[in-house]
Each structure stands twice: as C-alpha cells, then as structure tokens.
Amino acid sequence: MLDMPSTDTPLVQARGLGRNFPQRQGLLGRARDVWAVRDVSLSIARGETVGVVGESGCGKSTLGRMMLGLDTPTRGQMLFEGRDLASLAGAEKRRLSRRMQMVFQDPFGSLDPRRTIGAQIGDGLRIHQIVPRHDIRAEVARLLDQVGLPSAAAERRPHEFSGGQRQRIAVARALSTRPDYIVADEPVSALDVSIQAQVVNLLMDLRRDLDLAMLFISHDLHVVRHLCTRIVVMYLGRIVEEGPADKVFGAPAHPYTRALLSATPSLHPRDKDSLHGVLPGELPSPANPPSGCPFRTRCPVAEPQCAAAVPDFRTLAPGWKAACIKAGA
Amino acid sequence: MTRTTRKLLLPGTLIGLILAVIVLAPVLPLHDVRAMDVPNRFAGPSAAHWLGQDEFGRDVLARLIWGGRASLFIAVGSALSAAVLGTLLGLLGGYFRGVVEALTVRASEVILCLPPLLLALLVVTILGAGTGPLMVALTLLYTPNYARVVYAATLQVRALDFVTAQMAMGAHPLAILWRTILPNVMPPLLVQMSLVVASAMMIESGLSFLGLGVVPPTPSWGLMIRAARGAMEVSPLLLLWPSLALAGTILIFNLLCDRLQAVLDPRNVTAGGALWLRKGPRRAALPAVPAATDGPLLAITDMAISVNTSERSLELVRRADVSVHSGETVALVGESGSGKTLTSLALMGLLPDQLGISRGQALFRGRDGRVTDLAQLDEDGFRRFRGAEISMVFQDAAAALNPVHRIGDQLAEALRDTGDAQEISRRVVDLLRHVGIPDPERRQRAYPHELSGGQRQRAMIALAVANAPRLLIADEPTTALDPTIQAQILHLFQKLKSDTPDMGLIFVTHDLAVVAEIADRVVVMYAGEVVESGPVAQVFARPRHPYTAALIASVPEGAADRLVAIPGTVPPPNAMPPGCRFAPRCAHALPACSAAPPGAERPDPARITRCIRWKEVT
Ligand SMILES: Nc1ncnc2c1ncn2[C@@H]1O[C@H](COP(=O)(O)OP(=O)(O)OP(=O)(O)O)[C@@H](O)[C@H]1O
Ligand code: SF4
Ligand code: SF4
Ligand SMILES: [Mg+2]
User: Fold this and answer.
1) pTM score, two decimals?
2) pLDDT digits (tens, 9 = 90+) for A45-83
C-alpha cells in the first residue's frame, strides 16, 4: 500500500498549509510574521471543481500558487497523487508540471507582449513533447478553436486582442499540456458575460471530458455557484466556511458568506438603495489580525465573546463546516 | 513600406554610410595616412586634400576615415562586449537572486565605485597602451552599468504573470531567461547601449589624447583632436573635423538606439513617441461656439474611430451615438472588443498613436458654457480639458498610478494650480478622506504598491475628481475588485454623484448587474457600434435588440444547468460582416439583415435600437 495511490486518495491534497511572508520594519527592525494563509486543509478529487471565494488579500492567490507548487508552504504539506511537491527536485517537478496548469487573473500581464500567441501556446507542446513537432501548428489551431478564437490568431501578438480574448488564449495555453489539474485564479473575472458563459461551459465540459480536478478562485459568486461542486469561503487567510455549493449559497452559515452574497450586484437590484448596506471597512492587515474570530471587526453580529478565541471549524452537516460561534446554533 | 523600416531608414542609412566608408578605407583612393608633406603643413582644403593637411602635412580626410576605424572599433566593440557580459550577469543575478546575485551584480558593482578614467588608466598601465588593452579596459568599465540596468529590468519582468506561467509550464529556467525575459529587458538595454557607445568614444578620445590609447602614428579621432589642439591658433579647422565626426557619430548612434527601442515595442503606445512629433489628422482647435444653456453635457453623434496605417484604414468604432446630460450616469456596456475603451479614450484625446477620430462629432459643453467639438481637438487643445473638465478612472489602477511617487504627491501634482503648498496638502488629505481612504494623513505617504486594490482604485478616483471635472469617465473601475469592495466603490460613485450633482458620469463596464445597480441610462455596444440605448429599467425589462436580449440571458443568475452563451465571437475589425454586424450570431437573422446596416429606430422617444426586426422579435 506504500507507493500505490489508492483510488480514494484525492488527486490533490493540502494538509495544514500555511504561508508566512515575514516583513521587516525599517532597516534594523525585527521581522514581523505576516501569515497570508493559515492552516488550510483541502482536497480535490478528479472531476471535482472546488471554488474558493473571498476578498483579495485573503490569501486565495497564495493558496492557489502553493497548491500548484509555484510557492513553497511555510507549514504543512502539498500533496499531488500522494507525493509532497516540496520534496521533488527541479527536473522531476518540471516534468510533473505538465499535469498541473494555471490560468491567471490578469489578462494583461499573463501573456508575453513580445511573442506571438502561437509561439506561447506552443511552448507547452514543445517542452513536454505533447505532439510531434510538425503537428504543433495544427494543435495550436485546435486549442484556439476550442476556446473560440480563429486560428489566424496564432500569428498575432497579445496587444492586438482585447482583455477577454487574451484570457481565452491563456486558457488555451493551460490546456495545451493536457493537464489533470488546473488552478484557475480569477479566470473569468475580466470576461464579458456571453464569453464568460462560453468559458464556464467550456470548463464544465473539460471537467467532464478530461475528468479534470480544478481549483477555481473567483470573486464572482454567480459563476462559482454555477460551476463548482464544493465551495470554500476564505477570510484573512483562513477557511471560514466550506461545503457543498447548494448549502453554502442556499443557507450560508457564516456571517461573512452572507455579506458576500448580499454585496454581489444583481440584474434585479432588490431596491435602489441596496448598496447602502455594504459591509464597511476592508480586510484587516494580515500582519495584525484581530484576536479571536478574524471577521469580528466587520461582523454585523459580533459579540464580545467572539474576541476570546478563534472559533472552531464546526461540522454542520456531512461535508459542511463553518468557523463561527453562531453557526448552526 | 512598413512602419519599422520607415522608422529605421534614416539612422540605418547614416550608420550604413559611415560603416561603408570605414570598411572600404583600404580600397578608397585615399592618401597614405603617414605620408608627410612638411612644406605644406597646415595647408587649407584643396582639390587634392579636401579637408586640408595637418601639422605634418598629412591628408586630414584620410586620417579622419582611418581614425574612425580605430575609434569606432574600440567604442562599438567594447560597448558590445560589455553589453553581452553585463546582460548575462544582470539576467542571472535578477532571475536567481540569492548567492548568484551577490556573485554577479553586487560583485560587478564594486567596479562602479572606481572613477572611470582611473580604472581605465590602471588597466592600460598594467597591459600597456594599444587597441587591445583599451578595449579590455572599456569593457570592464561598462559591464557593471549594463548589469545594473538589466538586473533591475529582470526583477521587474520576473514578477509578471507571463513569466510565472512559463515556470508553471515547466520551462527550463535558462529557456525562460533567453526566450521571455531577455526580449523584455531589451528596451532599457538599448538605451544603455546608446549611452555607452557615446561615452566609450569620449573615453577613447580622452585616453588617446593622454597618450594611453591608440599609439601614433596610427590615427584616431582622439589623437587628432589632441594634435589639433596644439595648433589651434594656426589652423582651427583641424580641430573642427574630428570633433564634428565624433559628435555626429554619437548623435546618430543615439538616434538609432532610440528608434530601435520604439520599433521593438509591440504596443506602440501613445506615451512611446514624443507628443509634439505626432502627426495627426486632427486640425487645430476650432473656435468654440456658444450655445443654448440647456443642451447635454456631451453629445456624440455618428462618431467613427479608425486605424490609419499606410496599408489600411479601418473603422474600429463607427456610428457611436452617446449623449450624457449633466448629473446623469450613462453605462457603456458591451463585450470585449466592442469599442467601449476606444470611445472613452477618444473623449480624452488618449487614443493610441495610429488611431484617430475619422468622422462625426463629440460636442462637449465646457464649464464656461461654450461647446467644443472634441473630435477636432489636437493634443494642445485636449490638455486644457484633461483633468479640469473631463477626467478618467482607468481599469488598472496599479498601472495608471505612478509607482515611484507617493499617492499624496501625485494628488498634490494634480492640484498644483489651486493654491499654496499648505492649502494643497490640506486638500490632498480632504480628497483622500472623501474617497474613503482611512487615516488619510498617514496613507498619503504610501506608494501605490503599498495600498490594497480597493484603496488604489480609491486613490485613482481621488486623482480623477481632484479638479472637480464636469465629466468623469470610468473604464471598468470595479472589474478587478471583490464583491464587498466593488459594492463599496459603486457606493463611492453614488456618493460622488450626489455630492456633485452636476457631474456627468460615463461608466464603462461589461457587467450588466453593475449597470442595473448604478446607471440611469445604458448604451449597448457591439462590434464597434452602438446597437441599443435607453433608460436602464426600460431596456432591461424589455430589450428591443436581439443582442441586448441575449446578453441579459447569459448572466449566470438563473438556475439553468448550462449557461446561455451567444454562439461565436465578436468578428475582428478587419472582417466585419456587411449589414448588421450581429447577424452571424443572431438567432433572428434574415437575408435582409445583411443587406445594409440597420438604421436607428426609435421604439420610444428615449430609446434607440439598430435592428430591422425589432418590432417582431423583441
Ligand atoms: N492600437 C490598436 N490597433 C489596432 N486595433 C486596436 C487597437 N486598440 C484596439 N483595437 C481594436 O479595436 C476594437 C475595440 O477595442 P476596445 O479596446 O475599445 O474594446 P473594449 O470594448 O474596451 O473591450 P474590453 O471589454 O475588452 O476592454 C477591438 O477589436 C480591438 O482589437
Ligand atoms: S464568531 Fe462572532 S465575529 Fe466571528 S463571524 Fe461568528 S458572530 Fe461574527
Ligand atoms: S438586424 Fe437582423 S441580424 Fe441584426 S440584430 Fe436585428 S434581426 Fe438580428
Ligand atoms: Mg476596455
């Protein structure tokens, strides 16, 4: 049983991940701990899409990078098919990277402005020898077609495309190595609805056809709700609620999840003044998190008791947990 | 002729000429550079000696050309070898950091501490005078310059997503360095190169002048200057020729590097070229016409924006009709590439270089009640409006704010004409507080990168409203933000509107839900055209254009299993279908739709649709 990845081992497993970015104050000051991610455990099986929602700065992207081996966790382990990514050497890790791909948030920064689209999509094909050299052009054309772009796009450079078009190019690039696992960091937040719908449908098809495991980071709750089977809500580096999509969105247990849902703009605004009930303030600094419940400085139902200790991650129903003293009570 | 060749034509030809003359020196019918003719020393220009003769009666033209051989060989040679060495060190140091950084960049920086001339003297003293040692000295001297520049650029480029993407792709670090990072650090490298060639020529002349470089009687420009200086009173022309050659060559090199840099930039951004060099189809500002006091703040009618290159002229935006009354919020909504950003940039006079307004009007009513056609303004004309009357909030606040200045200073710069220093610093704090930045006294000292995304957007908004513009254009200001912060920023816009009831707001977005939350009227754009416009509530309740209807149906708010996606994509600007541009994707298209572009129909006095079948299908 030692090296055999058994069938119920999740493809991707994070165990107690934590990432510290110590920050020095001034030239001689002492380094201060800044935990971007704390104690996150999460697993993703093949064919499963886990949605991570939360505000920027809450550690979503750091978590995504760690879960792809682009960043090394300070604490905990990141396992891919049971193998710790931190223990892999350079060449082996590069080989494994064929199976794990990333789609980035920023459609302006994620493509090299100086190389043609075709060359950039072809990189993965060449590095990992996915197709014979003379088939690269055809494969690039197929990938472009898969994301709804004409094959003539291969000859052009990124600046000739608008934001949405670039993001689809980035998806095509990620798909080029035929990965098993994709981390998509805000992949549709810069897209328009009609294209977003195409990409979301595309990702759903890919999940079904390729049995893809996906970590889908987004702040668009509508999309996450639509696409993801399981939802993770993060706040200040911690998971505050985790559960099946219908539970988390249907009957949110954590006050922060509720606030997120009501802040999401809707085609049918409840009333013209709906924006006046917005959650005040911003995410506290991770360098100086509140004692006890991290959300208590903005929580509309906070009590003195909330400052006492970090609330337990309590199970509300099988697979549904929340970290709030009032949840499920 | 492409843009590239046109840009490189002038400096390329000049350099080519110089090189040709120098390379061909042995076969040209020149006098012997060492042949003395003492009786005719200091003779002026003559038919036999075009530039005259020097203190030994040698031919000046021949010596100038042969001297250029030595001078240029040394300067360009050492600039190139230093570039290769320095780039290597800078790339490795910047990419791998840590120990590698200490061994490469830091080590080479030690050399920078030594005075350049002293260092050169040291090397020449050790290795002896002559061309070879001089080149070694100059290479050593300039390597750290390159290393530093490339190191800084590498650090910057390395942090960008497309480099991370390459790492995620499993590309080998050296491949990333070569293929991705090197081309992107090229521009600063070229600037450095032009500086170094110039400086190397100066130092070569200096050292030869001191007798430590090229050994006489081999000519070099430095030696010629040195010799001519002694005879300045007798024959001032002798000093002129080598000096001219030196200065001219340096200038040409600078020009070449400048142009190369522009050509290598794939984006040809507006900021790339000197603004005063921009030729434009736009005419000078027309006299503003005073008009009735109650018209709209902005009335765009039938505006078209075209690319104008020598190969093609293409309309990217056409038939744009948008009007904004003061106090009104108009949402410009449409898919990416539909021309929302171009339309807004046109109003600011910030269109990229080769783009211009080719048709139509954009009448803007200024603070003084006079109406100006923005479509006719030139760069100078726009400068009067930007910031003061019309200002813009960009999608990417991180890119739009200057990363090297504190936000307080950037605001103060925008406010510089409004009072004395104390007054300004008070207003900076007020503004920051107004846009909801907590603890503004302290935060004004922050650099943009020290702020969160939401706060950066707030700072950007503060910058845009600093001078109380009459028209604020916001291009996707909340697109990159999280829901709670987006709600806050939308709320901020609503607050700004109620605080300045006269300000018109154009809110560009692709998110229909945001339109529903904030706008009074909506203008729907598709493939560079306005297809529908009207009051938000009416349009959303009953769209009168199939595209608007499909757009609303594709919002993932329903419970449907699969989202309704509009098939296909927006056609590229060079392959627009004839007639209705939506026809290839429209479920209701008829042959008649492709016959001619549908005209503007008015289902209601306040609404416009451009669909010939609006009565039947909506
Ligand atoms: N510098 C340029 N040269 C040539 N074509 C350009 C240039 N800039 C934009 N375009 C083209 O003009 C059209 C309109 O672009 P624009 O950026 O205005 O779209 P947009 O509606 O703002 O899109 P997005 O929602 O993606 O921001 C697009 O087809 C684009 O490819
Ligand atoms: S523990 Fe208290 S502060 Fe935290 S979310 Fe629950 S009620 Fe709010
Ligand atoms: S004119 Fe024809 S093709 Fe165009 S939107 Fe109307 S029905 Fe569709
Ligand atoms: Mg845009």
Assistant:
1) 0.71
2) 988 999 999 887 788 888 998 999 888 899 999 999 888
Quote the minimal CA–CA distance from B257 to chain A in Å: 18
Position B611 scores a pLDDT of 93
- pLDDT score recorded for residue B539: 93
Domains detected in chain B: 3-33+51-268 (1.10.3720.10), 298-389+470-617 (3.40.50.300), 403-468 (no CATH)
Is B422 exposed, middle or buried, given 0-12, 13-18 or 19+ CB atoms closer than 10 A? exposed
Buried b (16+ CB within 10 A) or exposed e, B448-467: beebbbbbbbbbbbbbbbbe
User: A163-175 and A117-127 are packed helices; what angle lies between their axes, rounded to 10 degrees?
Assistant: 20
Domain ranges, ordered by start, for chain A: 110-178
In angstroms, the CA B44 to CA B47 distance is 10
Question: Per DSSP, which regions of A152-291 are E strands?
Answer: 181-185, 213-217, 230-235, 238-244
Distance from CA of A213 to the nearest CA of B (A): 16
DSSP class of residue A279 equals P
Q: Is B487 on the interface with A (CB under 8 A)?
A: yes
Give A 71-110 residues with CB within 8 A of chain B: 93-98, 100-102, 104-106, 108-110
pLDDT single digits (tens) B140-176: 888 888 888 898 888 888 877 788 877 777 788 888 8
Residue A227 phi, psi (nearest 5): -95, -30
User: Which alpha helices (H) appear in B233-371, and where do they start and end?
Assistant: 237-264, 340-348
Instruction: State the closest ligand 1 atom to the C-alpha of B267, by its place in the atom list counted from 1.
Output: 1
**Segment holding A38, helix H or strand E:** strand A35-44
A149 in Cβ contact with A165 (< 8 Å):
yes
Distance to chain A for B167, nearest Cα, Å: 8
Q: How confident is the model at residue B294 (pLDDT cuts 50, 70, 90)?
A: low
Query: A284 pLDDT exceeds 90?
Result: no
Q: Are residues B171 and A201, on separate chains, in Cβ contact within 8 Å?
A: no
Ligand number with the minimum distance to the CA of A292: 2
- CB-CB under 8 Å, B337 with A164: yes
CB burial class (10 A; 0-12, 13-18, 19+) of residue A55? buried
One-letter amino acid for residue B229 of the chain: R
C-alpha–C-alpha distance, residues A165 and B547, integer Å: 19
Ligand 1, atom nearest to A164 Cα: 26
pLDDT, averaged across chain B: 82
Interface residue B453 vs chain A (CB under 8 A): yes
The encoded tokens of residue A199 equal 């990409």
Chain B residues touching residue A197 (CB < 8 angstroms): 554, 556, 563-566
pLDDT digits 0-9 by tens, B98-114: 778 878 778 887 877 87
* Ligand 2 midpoint to CA A238 (Å): 13
Between the two ends of chain A, the Cα-to-Cα distance in Å is 41
Please list every residue in chain A whose beta carbon sits closer than 8 Å to the beta carbon of residue B494: 275
Ligand 3, residues B525, B529, B570, B582: which to mutate, most atoms within 8 A of Cβ?
A: B582
